[in-house]
Amino acid sequence: MTSLKPRVSIGMPVYNGAQYLERALDTLLAQTFTDFEIVITDNCSTDNTQEICERYAAQDDRVKYHRNETNIGASRNYNRCYDLAIGEYFKWAAHDDEHAPTYLEKTVALLDTHPDAVLAHSYTDIIDRNSNVIPVPDNVLNLMVKDPDGGEMRVGVEYSDRHVDSDSVSERYQGILLQTSWCYDIFGLMRRNALANTNLQESFYGTDKVLLAEMVLQGKFLHVPERLFLNRRHAKQSGNIKTAKEREAWNNPSAAKHHPIPQWLCMKGYTRAMWKTSMSRTERARCVSILARYATDMKSWLTLFNEKLDLNLHIAVKSQPKDTGSLTMPPLAKDSGRKI
């Protein structure tokens, strides 16, 4: 039994997630910190997702199930979780990821004891479709590994070298724009009042990184130095959608008609976030410089042309043991952590 207003709300957007949904819910319901609700928003699934969700909601009153009448697209379904949630802290949880039992206990403690932090997360383990951990060296951003079906998956992890816990606004901004590729922090525990100052998930692919930029400009990101978040890699997730047009249709069904350029929309979001945040002139000038570095990197433009024209231009992406601070941008077909 949770309180009338739980301290934590967990939003779980899902579409046809029956294969992994029970495991994801079981690891959340097994948390040592128990004052939470799970708000599931079902994007009109056609498999037995509804039956699973209704069964869990009947067994545990912390689980709230909402089914959309039509498929409203990934971004709106993510935001629907937030709109229905009532907790002081909020986090999104994918229907196919897992969490160690102490994840909430330790991330709640970080936000409780650090009022200057707006997000708390943990280090990440990568798991395959059978929940086996895929060994990935620390701070290796791009590694091709075999999946259980004999194919290949691209994996990577990011830990402590991004300075997103810095006292400097510009250093934190740089950590997201120039040193973040995988966006696992989108599944961190966030202060709801900080999240309310953002545009939430917008209707273009890559919006998760824009949202992280909006958040990190407001405060620090802190991390539990343990691998308590388990990100599942499998063939059916959004990162395996092949073309920009298909990815936009997944994120926003109406976008398939006009095929926007996500890179431009991301740049607009990064710029908007920077200018609406209060900071000193010196810090703002540094943020402008960081944004200029991001905007003028050749790999960004090659990625843009690949995305717009569905070409196959070669984009060199290095796997590196340590991020040097230079921009390393994998193709946008990577999984951004948003897996509906």
Describe the protein in words.
It contains eleven helices and eleven strands. The chain is of the alpha/beta class. It has a domain at 97-333. The strands form two sheets. Strands 1, 2, 3, 4, 5, 6, 7, 10 and 11 form a nine-stranded mixed sheet that branches. A hairpin with a 5-residue loop joins strand 6 and strand 7 (133-134). Helix 5 packs antiparallel against helix 7, helix 7 packs parallel to helix 9 and helix 9 (262-276) packs antiparallel against helix 10 (281-296). The longest helix is centred in the last third of the chain and has 16 residues, at 281-296. It is globular and about 55 Å long. The model is unreliable at 310-340 (pLDDT under 50).
The coarse overall form would be: globular
Poorly predicted ranges (pLDDT <50, ≥5 residues)? 310-340
Output the number of helix runs. 11
The Rg value, from CA coordinates, equals 19 Å
| Secondary-structure class | alpha/beta
Written as H for each helix and E for each strand, in order along the chain, the element string is EHEHEHEEHEEEEHEHHEHHHH
Helix coverage percent: 25-40%
**Average pLDDT over all residues:** 84
DSSP, total strands: 11
Cα end-to-end separation: 28 Å
Percent strand equals 15-25%
Q: How can the largest sheet be summarized?
A: 9 strands, mixed
